[in-house]
From TrEMBL:
GO terms for molecular function: biliverdin reductase [NAD(P)H] activity; riboflavin reductase (NADPH) activity. Residues 7-200 form the NAD(P)-binding domain. InterPro entries: NAD(P)-bd_dom (IPR016040), NAD(P)-bd_dom_sf (IPR036291), Polyketide_Oxido-like (IPR051606). This is NADH-flavin reductase. It comes from Actinoallomurus iriomotensis.
Length: 212
């Protein structure tokens, strides 16, 4: 497949690009600074520099793609709209290019539902994680609204806290509900899950929770 990956220079993005190449996909990595891309040059890797919040800027990166994956995020705790603005721009560019499949990494901590244990649902998420990661979570929820309101064939993937560890291949998933006791997952396993979701028609227009 021809995959376009946003957030390619981050920890999860690096895993996603590397694993996609290993699986034989043609990859377009969208970056702000090519020097930060920690992936060796490859004959099936194309690097595109773009402003991810500008549809015209990202248009060349999504043209001809079979699927687009986004693992954009925000590193500090200040106010941000990067995920929402990028989602809006990417969705617009995909619509004009006729590209339908979109997989976006969200965050399990930003959402509480019946899949969570009572302590997590009523204490950890609203009283601990919510205030601590208020700005990032608000941006992620706004991003999800942009994606859900689109006419694309989207899937939202919601991981918990990310670890910089090797892939295990032993993770759980759930559709449209949080995973009870799912507190962590490695970036490598998250990347593997997202690549698996791309070709899963059953995940279209759903969110998929993933965790150990």
């Amino acid at each position: 497949m021809r995959l376009t990956i946003f957030g390619a220079t981050g920890g999860t993005g690096t895993q996603l690009v590397g694993q996609a190449l290993e699986e034989g996909h043609d990859v377009t990595a969208v970056v702000r600074d090519p020097a930060r891309l920690d992936v060796p040059a490859h004959e099936r890797l194309r690097v595109v520099t773009a402003d991810v919040t500008d549809a015209a800027s990202v248009a060349p990166a999504v043209e001809g793609a079979d699927a687009v994956l986004s693992v954009l995020g925000h590193r500090d705790r200040g106010p941000t709209t990067i995920c929402r603005d990028a989602a809006r721009a990417v969705i617009e560019a995909m619509g004009k290019a006729g590209v339908r499949r979109l997989v976006v990494c969200s965050a399990a901590g930003a959402f509480a539902d019946g899949g969570d244990g009572l302590f997590t649902r009523y204490v950890v998420k609203p009283l601990i994680l919510g205030p601590l990661l208020k700005n990032a979570f608000e941006d992620m929820r706004a991003c999800e609204r942009e994606v859900r309101d689109s006419a694309l064939e989207w899937t939202l993937v919601r991981p918990p806290r990310l670890l910089d560890k090797e892939a295990t291949g032993r993770y759980r998933t759930a559709t449209d509900v949080n995973l009870r006791g799912g507190r962590t997952i490695s970036r490598a396993d998250l990347a593997a899950c997202m690549l698996g979701v791309v070709g899963d028609d059953g995940s279209v227009r759903h969110h998929v929770s993933v965790a150990y």
